[in-house]
Please model this.
Amino acid sequence: QLYPYNYASSFESFDHPIPDRIFFTNDLNNEMPSEADYNELLGVCRELNLESLGDLHDFYVQLDVILLSDVVQAYRKQAEKDFRLDVFHYCTAPAYSFDAMLLFTKAKPSLLQDPDMYMFLKRVYEAEYR
Model:
């Protein structure tokens, strides 16, 4: 995936045409993309009528969202298949993992009987969510 990260330094750069290959240099390893990779990018831009850096940027954002959506839906289906739990019903991965553990181990947690432990946990909860 090619993207001119340093070239896209302002909103005005989104109005510019697709920049030359040198502007797609990867700063992490200081490598410029191959001529073949750059030509493939230009071919995609021609095919999709992407004329400016802004058009290319918008296409990348849409593509990233679609791919992420596919991954999340696949994970959700697998989680429902494995544990009969919907990951969208949880705010955090630890909460989901805890419920999955309870289902998997068939553990039956007991209610707190110790008043001191109850008060300790209540104070922790109140301190976290004020």
Observations:
- The longest helix spans residues 53-83.
- DSSP finds four helices and no strands in the chain.
- Helices lie at 35-47, 53-83, 93-105, 115-128.
- Residues 10 and 16 are 11 Å apart (CA to CA).
